[in-house]
């Protein structure tokens, strides 16, 4: 990070850091994962709720023994939650954390020299 993020008096200008291209790119990368995943999960969740409310016959269909479509879809909600969480952790480790670490390192270096 250049010294354009240093405010008068040697203090760090956090507004300049927030407006920097690297920080904006970090926010863009974060949103590129979070917004589509959130939309996907909300649609999937509401489809499940709507089916439970307006298609109980579909949800009550037996698949195997006492296992129904509704039960499988309900368990699928948990599986989806864990899958999205694991995907986000992998994404953050690969794409977000390195950039955030660089920004933090530069800020710590500026703070130490101030």
Alpha plus pi helix count:
4
Computed over alpha carbons, the radius of gyration is 23 Å
Secondary-structure element order, N to C: HHHEEH
Count of extended strands: 2
Order of strands in the sheet with the most strands?
1-2
- The overall pLDDT average reads 93
Query: DSSP strand (E) fraction?
Result: under 5%
Description of the molecule:
This protein has four helices and two strands; from the N terminus they run αααββα. By secondary structure, the chain is mainly alpha-helical. The protein has a two-stranded antiparallel sheet. Helix 2 packs antiparallel against helix 4. It is rod-shaped, with a radius of gyration of 23 Å. It starts with 13 loop residues before the first helix and ends with a helix. The mean pLDDT is 93.
Keywords:
114 residues; mainly alpha; two-stranded antiparallel ribbon; 4 helices; 78% helix
Ordered list of secondary-structure elements with their pairings:
Blueprint: H1 14-19, H2 21-54, H3 56-59, E1 62-64, E2 67-68, H4 69-113
Brief description of this entry?
With 114 residues, the chain is mostly helical.
């Amino acid at each position: 990070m250049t010294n354009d993020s240093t405010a008068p008096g040697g203090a760090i200008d956090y507004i300049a850091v927030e407006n920097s291209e690297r920080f904006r790119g970090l926010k863009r990368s974060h949103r590129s994962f979070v917004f589509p995943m959130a939309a996907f999960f909300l649609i999937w969740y509401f489809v499940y709720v709507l089916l439970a409310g307006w298609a109980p016959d579909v949800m009550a269909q037996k698949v195997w023994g006492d296992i129904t479509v509704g039960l499988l879809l309900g368990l699928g909600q948990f599986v989806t939650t864990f899958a999205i969480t694991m995907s986000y952790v992998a994404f953050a480790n690969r794409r977000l954390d390195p950039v955030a670490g660089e920004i933090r390192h530069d800020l710590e270096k500026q703070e130490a020299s101030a």
